[in-house]
User: Fold this.
Amino acid sequence: MPRPSEPRWTCWSGNGWSGNGWSGWPGGRAGGLAGGWAWGRPGRYRRRCSSSATGGAGTTHLLNLLAQDERFAAPDPLAVGLPWGFLGLTSFWRSRLEAWLPPDRIIDPMPIDPTAPQEDELALALMQPLSYYHGIFFPRHLYRAFRQGVLFEGCRPEAVALWRRRMDHYLTKLQLYSGSRRLLIKNPAHTARVGELLALRPDAVFLHIHRDPYEVFSSTRRMLLTLLREFSLQSYDPRAVDALVLDLYPAMMARFDRDRALLPPGRLAEIRYDRFIADPLATLRRTYDGLGLGPFDPAQPRMERYLAGVRDYRRACHDLEDQARRAVRRQWAFAFERWDY
Assistant:
């Protein structure tokens, strides 16, 4: 599929860092500072999506569970790894590329198969320069990559405008690929991009999941250090990761709080990780009702089968040293108070 110089489409069918990496691309973790989900319905010029979550928050488990609903469509590994060309892949090339997928994620034993739902950040990183993924490869610029790629701070206006065009272009391609199903998009960075997504898809609905701040910090730190070890092309100071995570999370949540004021009633749902884990189906039933996602009963049997299949999965335990715990408690005091942790 040729790469257009300026993508234009007249029809759109429609708390941790999380991502799934394959074939040498960074990504992968079971939760992060924030994650996002987006749903879109088809229709000429119709713009509908949804997005959000709090990192280290079990975002991957939630995405996988929501993706069991056959009315939703999430990007698959080839759609995020080949954002310019996945629509034009023949069955011959698709089957061969799928054969090269790794058996599981880089940072945990969660399996990857050709239909496994993925985040869209890798695709965005391959389509334009504003993405925190670029800081994984070049960690001497890690802080700047996160501030620019997530918060759009210190960016040229034309760079942000390009991000918007590429995001719109990618969502359009995903919907063309998915047919009449609603798009399901998850990306931790989208927690700070609610306003941007709402401008692109004005009838978006958003789901935000949060978790114990200590677990968020520990999980996010572990994820970033794993990715840096696997993919960095420069030397780096591991201590810089702690400072980055401590600084960025409050900034992201401040942006989220600013943008959530733009959402009409019924367009945002928030869930607590421990309650979701304790009773995922009841939690999602309430979420479906609150966001108007349609009847929950048709999706429940597939979700039950998925839950049965991951019943023996053991989530990683993240010990946190006293100094780090004190820093998290001090700099993320708002999160402890806001959600009563």
